[in-house]
């Protein structure tokens, strides 16, 4: 039944709707209420091993890379370990320095992406310690890594990643929490995170319940030929993933930019024909993001704000509101409306969302 559409128009739609259940399965049995942490037995590392980690490097392709970028932010924020993400293909071809105190994390839905697999093999050859964050049990990358976290998202058929992206982010948040709790993340902070994670399925369901409003906004912008997606810090990986979703299924040119970098070039492109989706997490950078919206509006650019904050009325042209999650987890809830936005915009243009031209679900060639 998992490969059947049932009453759904296509797999992307079905898989978006499955996200509350997928996230719930990803979390199941892994939240440790006693120690306010996560229980990730498959990772195969002891607290002592965790303490020796000096860096975390996350590798993947496409949406898995953007999920990795989100994961890197979570690791730095919760565990205060320097972390960054890189496309697996770049990593494998640039003769990377492989460091024994770095934890490498290979992220892949299919577990078969050639570039990610080759990065894992290169790492192992050079003595790197690599774990997998993989959906497909028994896949090549999962077997090659030997240890890691399975997403339990269920099969994903649509070329555009949806439930795999959200569950990757959730799995990486648990890893960050677990790493944090053997370092200096307090039990109270850990508890807030555990609560925040357990609230995600319901919050994602609430976002899905507001689909009609999101679809109306998407249809309103279906004539746009280009769009910007901007965010800063927590909003940035979500902006990249949102732009990617829109390009791959609607063929509308979408470009993601750091909000702070707009004034160093892209602002020149803002006009009434160039809508900008602005990610506005309700965090300490809220005022900065409001200023970004004002900058764009002052140049005549329509703004679609995607936010968990209460914005002053009239600030943005359109607002897509999501429930307030734990600050560190907001990028996850903010990503879901971007999927629905891309989906409904693509449908308004008559695109075949499950079979975008020139793309494959998993890229097992060079
Ligand atoms: C392809 C798909 C993307 C996916 C990427 C990585 O490009 O079209 O949706 O994000 O591969 O796939 P993986 O299976 O390794 O997560």
UniProtKB/TrEMBL annotation:
GO terms for molecular function: carbohydrate derivative binding; glutamine-fructose-6-phosphate transaminase (isomerizing) activity. Residues 46-185, 217-356 form the SIS domain. It is an enzyme of class 2 (transferase). It is found in: Cytoplasm. Its EC number is 2.6.1.16. GO terms for biological process: carbohydrate metabolic process; fructose 6-phosphate metabolic process; protein N-linked glycosylation; UDP-N-acetylglucosamine metabolic process. GO terms for cellular component: cytosol. It comes from the Bacteria. The keyword Transferase applies. Keywords: Aminotransferase, Cytoplasm, Glutamine amidotransferase, Repeat, Transferase. It catalyses: D-fructose 6-phosphate + L-glutamine = D-glucosamine 6-phosphate + L-glutamate. The active site is at 361 (for fru-6p isomerization activity). Catalyzes the first step in hexosamine metabolism, converting fructose-6P into glucosamine-6P using glutamine as a nitrogen source. Homodimer. This is Glutamine--fructose-6-phosphate aminotransferase [isomerizing]. It comes from Saccharothrix carnea. The chain holds residues 242 to 607 of 607 of the full protein.
